[in-house]
Design brief:
By secondary structure, the protein is α+β, with helices and mostly antiparallel strands. The protein is built from nine helices and 13 strands.
Length: 381
């Protein structure tokens, strides 16, 4: 280990011990200056709660605005509902604002169509000092056949935040970081709740043991591509005339088809139109990776954030899916449907007024599927 790292680690340890000592001595003064709004309102924070108190059930109907051209619901829409239901369950248990910290793997086992009724059930599986694991189950029902089917399930980790007003000074923010709101202990009662309680601890240990891959190189390359520094920059798109605007007699002076003219113009010579359906076009065998690069820039508005002006994790995931579909569409000339997402971690939060930049590219393609890497950055402008 480098000597600088040892010094920095020792400095942070001494700094943390000093701040905790000061807070222990000045605890009554600190609580009087920044009281808990929940207890100030006459409520009492309990040390433990039953698991069923956090149970949440949401019912949504799929509208055409939430679907693609084939009538299947976007995965980002369902992920947004999952995040909202899990956030409500976490807030019910912690009785304090909670934000999404991570999402485990999510697989969509059945597509949801326009008009289907979606049921989202969420509850806290286990709580720790300042974090909670929330399990979410998604089911759907067809209004015509009344057939109910399983769609997906997800496990999300939430962190409870302090409900106290945000400190305005640098010292106040440091002291607030060392004054977290403890999360009540979860008491499982039914056999299923006890099983979830035990499994959540195993998943937590697996998350802690999992090594985080290093994506700095690919992030830097995508950042260069977004600035126009890519080696194979896209050329300007050619201007193509609509076949309905020109008759076959006006194609060339001698009414012959030139070699460099598009195929649909040649089809007009024969008195018919060439199909523009992507399924009718010949598939390209291979594409360079930078050809699939896509970028989406969004401004975080108040409707995208919670009461603390922190962007919803579900909204970030919806924007990620939009960018991923744009990358995948550049490789596959067909209609696409999101099948699953790998686990993702929210390293830092974004808020109202921030500019969120999402970049993606296809990392690998298979026979009938693709893997898309997505990176999200936020700028406070």
């Amino acid at each position: 280990m480098p000597l600088d790292s040892i010094y920095n680690s020792a400095f942070e340890s001494i700094r943390s011990m000093w701040i905790r000592s000061v807070l222990f001595i000045t605890q009554p003064v600190f609580q009087r200056l920044l009281p808990d709004p929940y207890t100030e309102a006459g409520n009492v924070r309990v040390n433990a709660k039953p698991a069923n108190n956090s149970r949440v059930t949401m019912t949504e109907i799929i509208s055409p605005a939430q679907c693609n051209i084939k009538g299947f619901a976007y995965a980002g829409t369902i992920l947004g509902w999952i995040d909202i239901a899990a956030g409500i369950a976490a807030k019910r248990h912690a009785v304090s604002p909670s934000v999404t910290r991570s999402v485990d793997d999510v697989a969509f086992l059945h597509p949801v169509k326009v008009g289907d009724i979606v049921f989202i059930q969420a509850s806290v599986n286990k709580s720790w000092k300042t974090s909670m694991e929330v399990g979410v189950k998604v089911e759907a029902e067809s209004p015509l056949s009344h057939e109910r089917f399983f769609v997906a399930h997800a496990y999300l980790t939430f962190v409870a935040l302090s409900p106290r007003p945000e400190a305005r000074s640098h010292l106040g923010r440091i002291l607030s970081d060392f004054q977290p709101i403890p999360v009540p202990e979860l008491i499982p009662q039914s056999p299923m709740e006890k099983k979830r309680f035990e499994m959540s601890e195993l998943r937590r240990q697996q998350r802690l043991r999992q090594k985080k891959p290093d994506y700095n190189e690919i992030r830097q390359r995508m950042h260069e591509w977004s600035q126009g520094l890519r080696e194979k920059a896209d050329k300007d798109a050619p201007i193509k005339h609509h076949p309905g605007y020109f008759s076959a007699e006006r194609l060339t002076p001698d009414n012959e088809i030139e070699d460099d003219q598009p195929m649909f113009l040649a089809s007009l010579k024969k008195g018919r139109r060439f199909s523009q359906d992507p399924r009718m076009l010949q598939q390209i065998k291979e594409r360079p990776m930078d050809y699939t690069f896509a970028e989406v820039v969004e401004l975080v508005m108040p409707q995208h954030a919670n009461t603390l002006s922190i962007t919803f994790g579900g909204q970030i995931m919806a924007w990620m899916e939009t960018c991923a579909i744009a990358s995948a569409s550049r490789l596959a000339k067909t209609y696409l449907l999101t099948a699953s997402i790998d686990s993702l971690n929210f390293i830092a939060s974004s808020g109202v007024g921030d500019v969120v930049t999402i970049r993606s590219l296809v990392s690998r393609s298979f026979n009938s599927s693709m893997e898309v890497y997505v990176s999200v950055e936020a700028d406070k402008i």
